[in-house]
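user: Please supply your own:

assistant:
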Amino acid sequence: MKSVILIRHAKSSWDFPLSDIDRPIAQRGIQDALLISNHISAFLPPKFIVWSSVARRAKETSYIFAQNLVFPMESITFREDLYTFDVKELTRIIRSCEDCYQNLILFGHNDAITKFVNMFGDKPIENVPTSGVVQIDFLNEHWKDINKGITQKLFFPKQIRAYNKDEYIH
C-alpha cells in the first residue's frame, strides 16, 4: 500500500512586491500551519519521505511542520518540479517516488493539489485551503501504478478552529 499526504502551503503574504516563488507566508499562515501540524501529529505514519516545492511559502510551511512534528529539516527534499500548479505534472512527480517508500508527505500548491485530490481520492473537495492536509491511500505496490485511492484524512484550519471552539463551549 502507498499513502500520500498532500499539504498545501500556508497562506502567503502579498505585502511586498515579490515574484510568486519568493512570497513568504503571512502571520495567519504561520498560525494555521502551527495549528494543523499540532493536530496531525498523532495521525502520521511512523516512517515517511518529505518533498516540498522550492517556493518560499512551501519551504516555510515545511519547516513549521518539521519543527512541530519533530522530523529533521535536513530530511526534506526540495524539488523545483514541485513548483507546479498542474495536476498532470504533480501526478507524474508522485508516481516517480521510489517504491521503497510507502508514505510520501508533499508540500505543494493549488490548483494541482485540489485537482489531484479529486482525481485520485474518493471524496470530492471543492478546495484544499492553505495549510490544508489530505491523506490518500492507494492499494498499489508501486507508485507508478497509483490510480483511484481512498481519502483517509482531511485536516483544514477552519474546521480545526471550529472544533477547538466547540470543545471549549461544552
